[in-house]
Design a protein that fits this description.
- About 40% of the residues lie in helices and about 15% in strands.
- The chain is α+β, with helices and mostly antiparallel strands.
- The chain has a single domain, classed as DD-peptidase/beta-lactamase superfamily (Beta-lactamase, 3-Layer(aba) Sandwich), CATH 3.40.710.10.
């Protein structure tokens, strides 16, 4: 093969490779990202529904302005009930912010120490959990414990409603991800153990402690810890792509309105949820915004310091093997850009 033939062959191979790679591009994400930005948040929310989401709620709290509420799609697809900004939503891992704040409060009052180990509170785990006598409260709060994430165990999802009652066992069935404080890996097991530690420290449920120390002072009357506490008709339905089932009746822990989450996030970031000295501890152990994901429900709660704005976004359609989570991140980023543009105009 001469030099000219080689160049022609190389160009053909390059062209074929380009065509093949384009086949695997997630065009739905590209489209969501590059479309012209709408002028209003409501227009963006309406647009998002066209990407396969059943319903969407957005809450915006801009400093100096009244809170704004946006919704599109369905609260209940089967009964054709429109999305309601005041509906209760399953906030999933956003609850970690409440637990971390509680840990900071208890550490400040010296009811626990960030240096306490898993073994201090759960001696029965010595020999069952690697490094139980080395993993500290702070490491768990920071996701630096190495404790396996129970939701990464495929067996957990065979009957997650039943298995959730004994989730720690599914973490113990897997090896540690790394030695304590030698890496980072997000693990729901960390915060499950932290919630149980709060129970032991205060002598009653961590949910009661959160209500007394966080919800009641902030007048958050639309935040709950179980479906048993609410009227199911007040809860937004949740859907999984390709599944007809409504996941509304599944128990996934905390529920709240977008407004309640937004008020809490504002208080977390401006420090008003804390007493003197508590926020410094919180800042050393956890973050100031979060997302949540369970079957049928995905949420994002963000604070943007540059525009002093809280944005909470709820979407009631999920697909763990698809692009729904990526789309949700694109949508909230576009909403923030709209808010910034409005502020600049």
């Amino acid at each position: 093969m001469n030099k000219k033939q080689f160049k022609q062959l190389f160009r053909v191979v390059l062209l074929v490779g380009t065509v093949v790679s384009l086949f695997f591009v997630p065009w739905i994400l590209v489209k969501a990202w590059i479309l012209p930005l709408p002028d209003t948040v409501q227009a963006q929310v309406d647009e998002a529904i066209g990407y396969g989401f059943d319903g969407m709620i957005v809450y915006v709290d801009q400093a100096g302005k009244p809170p704004a509420f946006y919704a599109a799609g369905w609260k209940d697809r089967q009964r054709e009930i429109p999305a309601d900004p005041q509906a209760l939503f399953k906030i999933a891992s956003i609850n970690k912010l409440y637990i971390a704040a509680s840990i900071a409060k208890l550490a400040h009052s010296e009811r626990l120490s960030l240096d306490d180990t898993v073994a201090n509170y759960f001696p029965e785990l010595i020999g069952r959990l690697d490094y139980a006598d080395e993993i500290t409260v702070q490491m768990m709060a920071q996701h630096r414990s190495g404790i396996a994430n129970f939701t990464n165990n495929p067996a957990f999802w065979e009957n997650e409603q039943e298995n959730g009652k004994n989730a720690i066992e599914f973490a113990l069935a897997m090896p540690s991800s790394f030695e304590p404080d030698r890496g980072y890996e997000y693990s729901n097991t960390n915060y499950l153990l932290l919630s149980l530690i709060i129970d032991k420290v205060v002598g009653y449920s961590h949910t009661q402690y959160i209500r007394e120390e966080i919800l009641t002072p902030l007048n958050l009357t639309n935040t709950f810890f179980s479906l048993d506490e609410v009227d199911l008709d007040d809860v937004m339905s949740g859907y999984y792509v390709g599944v007809d089932e409504d996941f509304k009746s599944n128990e996934y822990g905390m529920l709240a309105t977008a407004e309640d989450v937004g008020v809490f996030l504002r208080a977390l970031n401006d420090g008003s949820v804390f007493k003197e000295g508590e926020q410094e501890i919180y800042s050393s152990i956890y973050v100031y915004e979060h997302g949540g994901l369970v079957p049928g429900y995905q949420s994002l709660a963000e604070y943007h310091k540059d525009i002093d704005t809280v944005v909470v976004q709820f979407l009631n359609t999920t697909d763990f093997n698809g692009y729904q989570w990526n789309l949700s991140e694109i949508f909230i980023n576009r909403i923030v850009k709209i808010l910034k543009n409005q502020g600049d105009s």
